[in-house]
Amino acid sequence: MAKLYVMSIRPGYARAVLEGRKRFELRRLTGLEPPEEGSTVIVYASGNTQSIVGEFKVGRLVIGSPEKVWELVGREQYGITLEARRYIEGARRAVAIEVREPRIYGSMVKLEKIRRIIPGWNPPHSYEELGEGDPFYELVAKHLLARTT
Hints:
- The chain has five helices and six strands, in the order βαβββααβαβα.
- It has one domain: Hypothetical protein (Archaeosine Trna-guanine Transglycosylase, Chain: A, domain 4).
- It has a six-stranded mixed beta sheet with strand order 2-5-4-3-1-6.
- It has helices at residues 11-18, 66-73, 82-88, 111-117, 135-148, and strands at residues 4-9, 24-28, 40-45, 51-64, 94-110, 127-130.
- It is α+β, with helices and mostly antiparallel strands.
- The chain is globular.
- A hairpin with a 5-residue loop joins β3 and β4 (51-64).
């Protein structure tokens, strides 16, 4: 069964991902395992937006040194900027996550609303896997997924 993740992305990049203009999302792999191919990623737009805004399916993964990842996917046609390159520089390992089937939700779920349901909930700094028993999964994520299928 495919796994489910929640990922924090800056608002402009989240929009580009969900509108299909950014085809890879770059991440540092510091203590994290990369998301599994075929999994669903729920997108939390950070910054001023502070909302769950959509989702995408994980396509292929390009894993390696930042230089290797950049060599393979650091091209304009993939919607990746030089700022993204600077983000992964200095990491031991990085991953480029291919964005497939991006979907913008009909309405955003604001952080304040999530915290009314799950007091003290904080979005991940990068991403995290969700599963049965996790309050965010049980009370928010599986309902978002059910509404959009």
